[in-house]
Amino acid sequence: MKIEKYSIGIGDRFARQGKAQLQAFLLARKKGVDIVPVWNKSHREHTIVGTQPQSVRDEADAAVKALGWEQGYYVDADHIGLQTVDGYLSSSDFFTIDVAQFIDQPAGEKAHQAFMNRSQSYVGSLEIPGIDRDLSVTDENLSQMAGRFLKAIQEAGKVYRHIAKARGQDNAIIEISVDETPAPQSPLELFFILAMIAEEKIPLQTIAPKFTGRFNKGVDYEGDLPQFEQEFIEDLHVIAYATQLFGLTHTPKLSVHSGSDKFSLYPIMGKVIQRHDAGIHLKTAGTTWLEEVIGLAVAGGTGLQLAKDIYATARKKLDDLSAPYKEVINIDAAQLPSPDEVNAWDEETFAQTVRHDQSNARYNQHMRQLLHIGFKVAAQMENRFTDALESHAEVIAQQVTSNLYDRHISRLFLLS
After folding, report:
1. Which pLDDT score, from 0 to 100, does residue 25 have?
2. CATH topology of domain 6-286+408-413
């Protein structure tokens, strides 16, 4: 099993928008761009919403059948580890192995020394084709990299072998996520992370490194664009060189996590992958849920009132909702409108405030981020919310398809 060149991870908190999401990929095909969908939902999201992994497979299969999709598609067990992977083995074929909790954990003296011994041939000046500067390798920084990443990659190896035992060695797409760390990985660190992956014999197909800047949920990138571009290009050169040097089974694609709504990055990434003939995996999630809220507002009447009620409750629970997402949100409470103010809004005022259109003076990224993490509020409404999704399915689907195609796919892949 080998994933195609271009893929997008599409989250769907409440498993209602599969066809609307897939419609965006059909529109891309009409423009001559083949992108495969990867339906993803994390263990945490399943726990909050009260769903099971099989529901994601069911949604994907139903959408593919309904729209006659004949290309590849996948279901991602998103951010799993050894303790959670078993529930996904039968329904998923893409596995994002999350090793964040093992980064900076010691691998043990024997493993540490074995890595140091294997890496001695690189001590000195490492030249990577395409990177116009030499990378200095010392015993000190080798030891630091082993201390940071060796245990994490060993854990990824354990998870992969567990998956392979259950599904077969060639019946799963493996992604490793090392993006949930305070500091970005340097090209040198990525090189040795790939060396560790090769040593574990993991058939890696995508890797999600940590880039400079903030990838906040549901809003645009915050950071230095030229610096991001340089890191992105250098990572591609590292991957190409490491693939050849270490004999990796596949040439891994770069995976960009929290990738939805990073509009300032899409033209940069799009031009780079075209220039280097490289693949990419863009992982999105909560942007679909936000379009559901916007669609409810646009529908007016009881739909609009429900959207207002979700916001009012989320505003009251700001601290609790924010706690798990501190590293990927930046909400200024002073910039949030009061529930009373929002309650007086009409359909367009609500929609324009939340919709990610930076040219619109009403757009409020703080309200958008709060609603992004506020899906727990809707989940607790149970049938009131899901029944509303069914009642207003057509207008919501229009928002979902347009958001994914016009704001995401077009800006990344359909460059002028």
Report:
1. 98
2. TIM Barrel (3.20.20)
